[in-house]
Amino acid sequence: MTRISFLNGFTCNARVPSSWHTGTLCLLGETDQGLVLVDTGLGQEDYVHRPGILRLFQVITIVPLDPQEALVRQVVRLGHQPEDVRHIVLTHMHFDHCGGLADLPHAIVHVHRREYEAFVGRPRHWTDLAYVRRHVAHRPQLVLYDDAGESWLDWPAIRLPFEPEMWLVPLFGHTHGHCGVAIKTEAGWLFHAGDAAPIGLGDYAPRWLVRLVLGPHAQRLCDFAAAHPDVRVTTGHMWLGFF
Ligand SMILES: [Zn+2]
């Protein structure tokens, strides 16, 4: 990708400790196939008709809920038309990562088949409560991916149909079909680990809790980042200072 914008699609601040301010990282990059967005944050409709899970977040955390954070507005502020976003790649389909799909209805949506099937299926796990079905009520064009026996660096991965190279990296656990996304940029590889790793790869929660909420890959992702200083590793939620 010639250039990547790091956008915050959903600010969520902790009550305790009150200094914990985070944003949901969405990546907007230029490819030969047009603009590609990785994750969407909330959608404009979510600010008007808040899903139940968002209301719950508002009880547990402090959510400013600023409509200017809607990704479609940020895309326009960057000088693009919403239709310029031709493709959306999803790490997973929790409300804070795919809520904005309906604001970009022309985009083709790329997601792991396991994730989409979990999203439309019966809830099987407590984290499935963060799926909001209406986020695909506009019936976007979907491309669903299965494991293909390829790999990107140390990780089994699925090549996405973009140039420069992008890979979907299965990191199941946080959700049934959660994936990271590896992107070849002018500055080297960017590996967006999504919600499989703690905020900014930090170490501030007991391992059992990290495993319960984020799945089994967090430690390996942190070890990978330490062993590969040439690869920039980001996470689904980043400290606000990052943006
Ligand atoms: Zn999530």
SSE layout and pairing:
Layout: E1 4-13, E2 21-31, E3 34-38, H1 44-48, H2 52-60, H3 71-77, E4 85-89, H4 95-98, E5 108-112, H5 113-120, E6 142-145, E7 150-152, E8 155-159, E9 166-170, E10 179-185, E11 188-192, H6 207-214, H7 218-227, E12 232-234, E13 237-239
Parallel strand pairs: 3-4, 4-5, 5-6, 11-12
Antiparallel strand pairs: 1-2, 2-3, 2-13, 7-8, 8-9, 9-10, 10-11
Bound molecules: zinc ion (ZN).
Describe the structure in brief.
The protein has 243 residues and is an alpha/beta fold. The chain is 21% helix and 29% strand.
Unreliable stretches, pLDDT < 50, 5 or more residues? none
Q: Tell me the overall shape.
A: globular
- What is the helix tally? 7
Instruction: State the end-to-end distance.
Output: 19 Å
Q: Can you describe this structure?
A:
The protein has 243 residues and is of the alpha/beta class. The chain is 21% helix and 29% strand. The strands form two sheets. Strands 1, 2, 3, 4, 5, 6 and 13 form a seven-stranded mixed sheet that branches. A six-stranded mixed sheet has the order 7-8-9-10-11-12, with no helix packed on it. It starts with a strand and ends with a strand. It binds zinc ion. The site of zinc ion has 6 residues, from loops.
Keywords:
243 residues; alpha/beta; seven-stranded mixed beta sheet; six-stranded mixed beta sheet; globular; binds zinc ion
